[in-house]
Amino acid sequence: MLSPSQQVQIFLAIQLLGGHIGLPLLIITFFFMKKSRSIVVTQFCVSWVIFSVSFSLLMYRTTPLKAESSQGLCLLSEAMTNGAVVMTSLSTLTFLLNLWFSILRPSWYVNEDSRHNVEFSV
């Protein structure tokens, strides 16, 4: 069994590798691709980067946590953590809905007659 300090170190290592290195590289790759990605995919990745930064914000502190000057950093970290959970949940839901609707073809699209009627009305 891992001690609590080892668990924190593993958690921060995963946050750094995924959210501070991996996802920003993926976002940069999206910007330099010739074929553009959906904005939903980019927004999903950006929200997870913000989530990662908010959970590892205390790692960047220069003063001990017991000092009075670190209270602002603790409050900022707490506020970002509470907001990031909701943001990543909603961006994941949006990403999954976008994926679902892009895979699922509407029934009117398959039938030629109804597809012409729908495209004409739009």
UniProtKB/TrEMBL annotation:
<keyword id="KW-0472">Membrane</keyword>
<feature type="transmembrane region" description="Helical">
    <location>
        <begin position="80"/>
        <end position="101"/>
    </location>
</feature>
<protein>
    <submittedName>
        <fullName>Uncharacterized protein</fullName>
    </submittedName>
</protein>
<feature type="transmembrane region" description="Helical">
    <location>
        <begin position="39"/>
        <end position="60"/>
    </location>
</feature>
<keyword id="KW-0812">Transmembrane</keyword>
<feature type="transmembrane region" description="Helical">
    <location>
        <begin position="12"/>
        <end position="32"/>
    </location>
</feature>
<keyword id="KW-1133">Transmembrane helix</keyword>
